[in-house]
Design goal:
Helix content: 55-70%
Structural class: mainly alpha
Radius of gyration: 26 Å
Order of helices and strands: HHHHHHHHHHHHHHHHHHEHHEEEH
Largest sheet: 4 strands, mixed
Strand content: under 5%
Number of strands: 4
Shape: globular
Strand order of the largest sheet: 1-2-4-3
């Protein structure tokens, strides 16, 4: 499809994009509301709903315009051809690695509330991980002595973070930067396989912007999800398969081994994310079968499982030494599969397919910019002159990932973040940034400067976390409650009936109750044990959210209503009565 006068069409496209971007800014939204009120001759009721509508339509038009423009062969857009690309792996210089590290540090410092510039990281999921992680260092065994249903490797990572900082997420912020840097490096290597040198230079400009869009989205939440760390762990195997499939060469032993290590890490953090690796293995195995290379299949399987074993053995030894193998299988596997998954009275296959469609819909209605990038990526892959089986390989990886993530019926907002890996292929259709009449050094500096400006623009106008920068520690109820709790020496605490609100973290308390927090998993044992701790007065303080504690043994000492993101609700702090202390 071609247009005779492409300049007019391209100018119109740019104008639509600029108007939409302006409407995403507060000034633009106020201007549109003012025009609407002038046209209607009255004030608008519930302006926040109108602002939400304006944002959605702006993102929709950006998406729609992008889909239209990439469907047309305009000169500003580049469609790679086999003859212009290379099968060789691109070697990064130390300065390029440093650049990706600094770009990751900038993005995560602004986007993730784990960073030092934010007063507190209040996400309940992260605080659950952190509480379990620090409990390991205080002699508690995961699942056996403290109950949470994510994978043990995730808790061990938070144990390491606890060694860096005992009352903040500074360690996690560092791990996030390393993970994001790894993701950018292998994204760069992957796309470099399909473009020529001029386009390759533009990747350094576009990749940080793509990462900023992903980390400014709703599915990023406030940072520190398993899905976030899985992005780097899936990007490396994807690069390995793309490189070898394009060159039609056998996978190297170390590549297979480290791909297995990545699969093992993902499995022991959240096994529902291993769908990617199942899809990832299909096309290479088919490729080996087509060549009747059965030895290659056995070798590949052996080295991959060797990598999985390298991660799995230390974990299994930990549980064996602590006599907790049964607890591992009960909590991590049985409870997640049979308690956490949604059950319905219909055919299991049909049910899983319906769940996937619902998951896809819920994932992208709240992440339209990411959906735009995925659509552009799909168009780029289909239109590019890449070998057909490589195209199939990418789509199979995506659909297997999607299926395993959503087939259980749960649809939490952060689930779709793991699928954002596939956004990088949208770069294949991005316009070239041609900087002529400049030395190479000046071109690099200008690209870095422009990329930083776009990154800042994306984050400050799309990230929901930026508004939390204005808050101080004193604004968080966790610190208000901690002042009261820490007045008692060696105080004990129970986070009653709701997910860990960060009170253990701020007060520097290791819980003495195995079921230290309420969870989304419908395990009746959780509330039974928490109620027993209250009835038998086994803790000094109890915190509830949006409900009062029905116990005569505790008295209300403080209540706070919070409207802060990830800490919203009314919280009540109860202390065991003094008379009860003497009786006990």
């Amino acid at each position: 499809m071609k247009f005779k006068n492409t300049k007019i069409f391209y100018s119109l496209f740019i104008a639509v994009i600029l108007i939409c971007l302006f409407s995403l800014m507060p000034a633009g939204q106020n201007f549109i509301l003012m025009l609407a009120e002038s046209a209607l001759g009255r004030s608008l009721a519930k302006p926040e709903k109108w602002i939400h509508l304006i944002k959605n339509y702006a993102i929709f038009f950006i998406t729609f315009s992008s889909i239209i423009i990439v469907s047309i062969r305009l000169k500003p857009f580049y469609f790679p051809k086999d003859g212009e690309s290379t099968c060789a792996e691109t070697k990064l210089t130390k300065m390029e690695i440093l650049y990706f590290f600094l770009a990751s540090a900038l993005i995560l410092t602004l986007c993730s509330t784990t960073s030092p510039i934010y007063a507190f990281h209040a996400w309940d999921d992260s605080n659950c991980f952190f509480t379990v992680g620090k409990s390991v260092l205080h002699g508690k065994t995961i699942y056996k002595d403290i109950y949470e249903q994510k994978g043990p490797l995730l808790y061990f990572m938070h144990t390491a973070a606890y060694l860096i900082s005992r009352d903040s997420f500074l360690g996690i912020w560092i791990f996030q930067i390393v993970s994001a840097t790894t993701f950018l490096i292998f994204s760069y290597k992957s796309i470099s396989l399909f473009v020529f040198r001029e386009v390759r230079e533009n990747l350094k400009f576009y990749l940080p912007i793509i990462l900023a869009i992903i980390f400014s989205s709703t599915c990023f939440v406030v940072g520190d999800s398993v899905e976030e760390f899985s992005m780097a762990l899936t990007m490396y195997p994807l690069f390995v398969s793309l490189k070898n499939l394009k060159a039609k060469t056998e996978f190297k032993n170390k590549e297979l081994f480290f791909s297995g290590v990545c699969a093992g890490c993902v499995f022991w953090m959240k096994f529902s994310l291993v769908g990617f690796f199942i899809g990832w293995a299909i096309i290479p195995i088919w490729f080996y079968l087509k060549q009747r290379n059965f030895r290659g299949i056995f070798k590949a399987v052996g080295f991959i499982w060797g990598g999985v074993a390298a991660v799995s053995l230390p974990i299994l030894i930990y549980f064996f030494v602590n006599d907790a193998i049964a607890d591992l299988f009960q909590v991590y596997f049985f409870d997640n599969i049979f308690l956490y998954a949604v059950s319905e009275n219909r055919n299991p296959v049909l049910r899983s397919i319906i769940f996937c469609f619902k998951g896809f819909e819920s994932a992208y209605t709240s992440n339209l910019l990411i959906f735009s990038l995925l659509v552009i990526s799909a168009v780029a892959i289909l239109k590019s002159k890449i070998l057909s089986f490589i195209k199939i390989h990418i789509f199979v990886c995506y659909f297997f990932s999607l299926f395993f993530i959503f087939c259980g019926g749960q649809r939490h907002v952060y689930y779709s973040l793991a699928l954002s890996v596939f956004c990088i292929f949208s770069i294949l259709l991005f316009p070239l940034l041609k900087l002529r009449r400049m030395t190479k050094g000046k071109q690099e500096l200008l690209r870095i400067f422009l990329s930083a400006i776009f990154v800042a623009f994306v984050i400050f106008y799309t990230s929901p976390n930026i508004s939390l920068l204005r808050l101080k520690k004193s604004d968080y109820l966790q610190f208000q409650f901690a002042k009261v709790i820490n007045e008692k020496e060696n105080a004990t605490l129970l986070n009653y009936g709701f997910l860990d609100g960060g009170f253990y973290t701020v007060a520097k308390i290791v819980p003495n109750c195995k079921y230290f927090t309420g969870l989304n998993i419908p395990n009746p044992r959780i509330m039974e044990e928490q109620n027993r701790f209250v009835e038998e007065m086994l803790v000094d303080f109890v915190i509830t959210r949006d409900q009062k504690l029905a116990s005569e043994n505790y008295e209300l000492v403080q209540s706070v209503r919070s409207e802060i993101r990830k800490s919203s609700g009314e919280y009540f702090l109860y202390q065991r009565k003094i008379s009860c202390d003497f009786e006990f």
